[in-house]
Amino acid sequence: MSDDKHPILVFGATGRQGGSVAKALLKAQWPVRAFVLDPTKPASIALRHAGVELVRGSFEDTDTIRAAMKDTYGVFSVLPGNLTAEEEERYGTSIADLAVQSGVAHLIYSSGASVGDELTGVARFDAKPRIEAYIRQLPVTATIVRPMIFMEMLVRPGFRLDEGRLFSLIRPDHSIQLTAVEDIGKFVASIFADAARFGGVTLKIASDRVTGHELGAIFSEVAGRPIAYARFPDEVLAANADLAHMAKSLEDGPLAERVDLNAMREINPELLSFHAWLAGTGRKALDEALDMAARGAS
Questions:
Q1: End-to-end CA distance of the chain
Q2: Tell me, what's the pLDDT at 293?
Q3: Single pTM value for the model
């Protein structure tokens, strides 16, 4: 590991991706500095107790961000999902500019696997590729990671587990590549440890690949009851632009591109299968969804 005396600044450390990154970096013995909105929240307090240095600020506060980057080796940049497209692009490019101005040695930006080579013309889908393009022309060693669809998405409300079944975006005989959020941190820690290898690289990351049929079988096995799988009906997709965009991308777009899982395991030997994730970290969310189904049936 190079420059291990200097911290890595993590954005979004109280959230899923940033939290995963902070945890993995601490395990790899990096000093971690987290940029947080509210240091009094339980997630912030937990970070501090784990040994993370907290810096309070907002994305609008460039002076505080610049101060937080002082003497850092690297920056992990991920932005919350509740921003407008204009805010996302502005904050993403601003963080990158400040990293250059601060002499950061390695910037990692977490984008999205649905990003392709061409813009869609839809603002909320095009913010990430615009940030990517901006970062690539800056004089800084940078790595862009594009996590595939999160495993966590499949146990969210709206995917019908509360009805005792599972709806998703692929046809039963098609496959979907999924990423466990906790794996993202492990990938990022490995990337920070080897800037010579990963600098200038755009890397799609995934933990597993499963078909719709396999999803139904895995959910049924872990739940201990039959969970039928089906693709969302066309009318449901037509009514939700985000789901429709993802479904199309899974058919013939960026999300349909295959990630080499053997290469992923070489970077992250602790790669989680979907079965292992659902039976472990994802079990609580699964049980909560199935409990809702049981209450609804009673």
A1: 56
A2: 59
A3: 0.94
User: What is the rounded CA–CA span in Å between residue 147 and residue 257?
Assistant: 12
Q: Are residues 157 and 138 in the same domain?
A: no
Q: Are 218 and 210 in contact (CB under 8 A)?
A: yes
Number of structural domains (the chain) is 2
Note the pLDDT of residue 246: 86
Q: Which range marks the domain in which residue 212 is found? A: 153-176+207-257+266-297
pLDDT value at residue 3: 46
Tell me if 185 is assigned to some domain. Answer: no
Q: Write out the two tokens for 116.
A: 């392709």
CATH code for position 24: 3.40.50.720
Residues 22 and 136 grouped into a single domain: yes
Average pLDDT for runs of 10 along the chain of length 298 = 75 97 98 98 98 97 98 98 95 98 98 83 84 98 97 91 91 96 98 98 97 96 95 93 87 91 98 98 92 63
